[in-house]
Design a protein that fits this description.
- By secondary structure, the chain is α/β, with parallel strands linked by helices.
- It folds into two domains: 13-57 and 93-277, Aldolase class I (TIM Barrel), CATH 3.20.20.70; 286-351, Antifreeze-like/N-acetylneuraminic acid synthase C-terminal domain (Type Iii Antifreeze Protein Isoform Hplc 12, Alpha-Beta Complex), CATH 3.90.1210.10.
- It contains eleven helices and twelve strands.
- The chain has helices at 34-46, 59-62, 85-92, 96-109, 120-128, 144-151, 166-178, 204-212, 226-233, 260-277, 329-332, and strands at 7-9, 12-14, 21-25, 51-56, 112-117, 134-136, 157-160, 184-189, 215-220, 238-242, 297-300, 315-318.
- The longest helix has 18 residues, at 260-277.
- The radius of gyration is 29 Å and the shape is elongated.
- The two termini are 51 Å apart.
- The model has no long low-confidence stretch (mean pLDDT 96).
Length: 352
């Protein structure tokens, strides 16, 4: 895989030949408790996440408090059915005053902390806190004033592609690049909550990387870790997954979030998938040389007297592998033994 060039988020290297960067998305799973938010940071760090991600907005910076039309959530399948948008965002928001203690606690634990800003004022706050990068949500990836503000920081930007046309993505990346952003990670994303494996379409990942000349990843709303592992095999080097302490305890995104033990598995298995990619390899590896002895070869299967003919009864292709290669089996049939041969003797040309 061609390396587009390594860059760093804090001290973590992002690149085609570097292990995947795994982000635990807190979202609103703190259930409006700072104590719970800090517990989530601690659990994410313990699970091996490389980063914890917040969302920085208020209900007023996203929408207005209004009823009717598209302001109402009326989909019976939605996790948020019956609320209006303003109520949803009031419940899900992470208060601005929590950001500093969360960032500080993450630094204490050695886990990277950053956020998704939803308007320009959120960027100002995150700059004050020293955020090392920015995430742009799928629903904000056409918010050009926000993209320009984020790009002007010159920090890496991770941007999701959910519910976007090819033209939308191309235009958004152009805005970022023209306004000072040099390091971009484009995430394949399906904006369903939860998403299904069938609508995840991981084959898009290598295509995105080739088309947009940037690192790529997956913002994963499916259950389990299978989609993320598959994404890494296809070139994803950033994986974002929602995270909670317990789905049973609820939270705005808990239904499609991983619990700590599951997230630990995500970190382990995505890194295994990355390490397993290796390179194109044929032939016997150094680590396999001892295993050659466990392949098959031609052995004496019954005692054979000098001058006796080799037959299918007295020689066989068996394990271990220190006799003649099985390709010689038919050549040996009908030939004779030079000496007496005991059962269990590996055949060689010297004794034929």
């Amino acid at each position: 895989m061609e390396d587009q060039g390594v860059f760093y988020i804090d001290n973590f290297a992002i690149g085609a030949n570097n292990k995947p960067f795994i982000i635990a998305e807190m979202s609103g799973n703190h259930n409006q408790s700072l104590e719970r938010a800090l517990q989530i940071v601690k659990a994410a760090a313990a699970a091996g996440a490389h980063a914890i991600k917040l969302q920085t907005y208020t209900a007023d910076t996203i929408t207005i408090d209004h009823r009717g039309g598209l302001f109402e959530i009326t989909d019976p399948k939605s996790l948020w059915n019956g609320k209006n948008l303003y109520e949803l965002y009031q419940e899900a928001m992470t208060p601005y005053e929590w950001h500093k203690p969360i960032f500080e606690y993450a630094r204490e634990l050695g886990i990277i902390c950053f956020s998704t800003p939803f308007d320009e004022t959120a960027v100002d706050l995150l700059e004050e806190l020293g955020a090392p990068c920015y995430k742009i949500a799928s629903f904000e990836n056409i918010h050009h004033p926000l993209l320009k503000k984020v790009a002007a920081t010159s920090k890496p930007v991770i941007i999701s592609s959910g519910a976007s046309t090819l033209a939308d993505i191309e235009e958004s990346l152009k805005v970022l690049r023209e306004n000072g952003c040099k390091n971009i990670v484009l995430l394949k994303c399906t904006s369903n909550y939860p998403a299904t494996p069938e609508n995840t379409n991981l084959r898009t990942i290598p295509h995105m990387r080739e088309m947009f000349k940037c690192e790529v990843g997956l913002s994963d709303h499916t259950m389990g870790v299978g989609a993320a592992v598959g994404a890494v095999a296809l070139g994803a080097r950033v994986i974002e997954k929602h995270f909670c302490l317990s789905r049973a305890e609820g939270g705005v995104d808990s239904a499609f979030s991983l619990e700590p033990e599951e997230f630990k598995s995500l970190v382990i298995e995505t890194e295994r998938a990355f390490l397993a990619l290796g390179e194109v390899q044929y032939g016997v590896q150094e680590s396999e040389k001892k295993s050659l002895l466990h392949k098959r070869s031609i052995y004496v299967a019954k005692d054979i007297e000098k001058g006796e003919v080799f037959t299918t009864e007295n020689i066989r292709v068996i394990r271990p592998g220190d006799g003649l290669h099985p390709r010689n089996y038919e050549k040996l049939l009908g030939r004779v033994a030079k000496d007496d041969l005991k059962k269990g003797t590996p055949l060689s040309w010297e004794i034929v």
